Amino acid sequence: MPSPLSSDAPVELVVEDAAVGARLDAFLASHFPDFSRMHLRRVITAGGVEVDGRGGKPAYRLKAGQRVRIVLPEIPREAPKPENIPIDLLYEDEHVVAVNKPAGMVVHPARGHWTGTLAGALQYHFGPALSATGGPTRPGIVHRLDRDTSGVVLVARTDQAHARLAAQFAERSLEKEYFAMVAGVPERDRDRIDRPIGVHPHTREKMAIRTDPAAGRPAQTFFEVLWRFRGFAALRVVPKTGRTHQIRVHLCHAGFPVLCDRQYGGRARITRGEIREQPGDHTVLLDRQALHARKLSFRHPATGAPMTVEAPLPDDLQAVLAELRIYRQSP
Predict the structure, then answer these.
(1) Check: CATH 3.10.290.10 for 11-70?
(2) What is the pTM of this model?
(3) Per-residue pLDDT tens for 31-60?
(4) Is the pLDDT of residue 108 over 70?
């Protein structure tokens, strides 16, 4: 856990027009993403934050030109503690490891998640035989998935492998393929969404379509309909860029949000009764976003040989798919 407030010099921020009306805790979370909003609330409550020289409250709404002064807590700089958490290995050699990350697991320590991470599990299973390029809190981690997205994650075992894999991500020379279930049915069998993405103008922990060139970055997502159901669809999704929350933002913008995406889709779970149209059945089938990183194609960092790693569809998504096939077949 982070230590108490440090004795370092305070950081001062000026509230710009885009942040007017934002809560104080949300404003700070947008500027200091290594700290969870909950932790920053504790800092505010403990008197570590001032607004125009006065103590603030987490829910205080900011005004233009105000000066926010914070004494930042220290961030843990040591490697994550090794934790005996099972890992589903998809591929392993002396250069690279591919794992099937389960939904609900954070990739590396950040934003208040200091235990139960993939990084902690990797430390237990591989010890020092991981790349140090990402720093002590991200041993071997080349890229990440959202906590509630399952699927393929690549891990580098040497610094050289890390550099070569990271270059492929930067050059967009590897291909990521996702499986998604969505609420709503696309009209087209396949399409490309080309809309810029940036930080949401009012909710700083979210992303949004931003047409202002200064606020958004180019983002492209290709999708193909695998199966249509009444009110739902299953998609193959290939992001051409790697913006934060890209698939979730693009599909929501297109009118068919990822199923059970509480942040962008407006619902957190789906029950068996909803699919079967039996209101009395409240059995929860899915309580996380229906997004799975199914396949990753790349060049081996040592040999340059083309490789493809696939992660099987997890049980919760298979269960929803099975129900849709029985009870929601299109006419």
Answers:
(1) yes
(2) 0.77
(3) 877 676 767 887 888 788 999 988 888 889
(4) yes
CA dist., res. 117 & res. 51, Å (int)? 35
Dist. CA 198–CA 170, nearest whole Å: 18
Residue range 120-126: mean pLDDT, rounded: 93
User: Active-site residues: which are they?
Assistant: 146
Identity at 222, one-letter amino acid code: F
The answer to whether the 89-171 and 176-327 domains have the same CATH topology is yes
Residue among 267, 237, 270 nearest 254 (CA) = 237
295 forms beta bridges with 177, 310
Diameter of the chain measured on Cα atoms: 67
Assign a CATH topology to domain 176-327: Pseudouridine synthase (3.30.2350)
Average pLDDT across the chain, whole number: 89
Find out whether 81 and 120 touch, Cβ atoms under 8 Å: yes
Residue 170 and residue 298 in contact, taking contact as beta carbons nearer than 8 Å: no
CATH H-level, domain 89-171: superfamily:
Pseudouridine synthase (3.30.2350.10)
